[in-house]
Amino acid sequence: AVQRDNLKTFAEENLRLLKDSRDNAQALKEADVRKDEFLATLAHELRNPLAPIRNGLQILRMSPEGPRAEAVRGMMDRQLTHLVRLIDDLLDVSRVSRGRIDLRKERMRLQDAVQAAIETSKPLIDANTHSFTLDMPDTALWVEGDLTRLAQVISNLLNNAAKYTSEGGDIRMNVKPHDGQVDIEVIDNGLGIEADMLPRVFDLFAQADRHLDRSQGGLGIGLALVSKLVEMHGGTSRAFSDGSGTGSTFTVSLPLVDEAGGAIGKPLQKA
Ligand code: ADP
Description:
Keywords: Kinase, Phosphoprotein, Transferase. This is histidine kinase. GO terms for molecular function: phosphorelay sensor kinase activity. The structure is a single chain. By secondary structure, the chain is an alpha+beta fold. Helices cover 51% and strands 16% of the residues. A five-stranded mixed β-sheet has the order 2-4-5-7-6. A hairpin with a 2-residue loop joins strand 4 and strand 5 (181-188). The chain is globular and about 90 Å long. The structure holds adenosine-5'-diphosphate.
């Protein structure tokens, strides 16, 4: 009987190993498919802006002056901004996954990061003639942060708001200090986010299934970077939306410090 039991255990163990290796092979296969899909999207995204830039150059060669030329230059500027952002994000994400992003933190005014972000995102917001309003207190809001990285966080949120909100939409940004922290809200009244997508928006390569409509573009990197960088600043990132077509709100909370650099509030809870 003991021998039979041993045999049975042995067979069961073998079956389990076989199943595990099948599961592993399946997981590898799926990862491989995802990688292929990602590479195809990446090639597409990098190539997309090049055709209009090339056309623009041709137009400028023929008629370098006048309002049309101005419009063409604006378009080329936007396409290049988009391309640079894409490549920067790509570089950053590989640095983040290898744990190679170093923050240059200093005591800084959050307002400076906000202004820098607005400056960077202006071409995208203006491109679709969105209305943009900013509600931010004048008194200095001190944070311990990396100015460039915080500007990148805010600008990623603004870019998304512009990207996922059609022409004529409203984008609002509220900066609200309370209880030793500051909330930065970016609110749009655009496409919104479906409930099943909402918990995944900060995941790397997460993109809502928009059925082959790639007009919104992107690689699904921006928000993963936002969440990582905010975390590295001791803050939290959250997304809110009631679903399709109702707009979205993204809130980043950061700990405030006093003018001398000491923490004002209690440490932020992880959301
Ligand atoms: P990307 O925009 O390159 O796809 P992100 O990481 O910036 O990648 O965003 C991930 C996904 O979250 C997007 O593909 C989109 O589906 C959704 N998303 C992000 N911001 C918004 C927004 N303001 N409105 C609607 N959907 C959004």
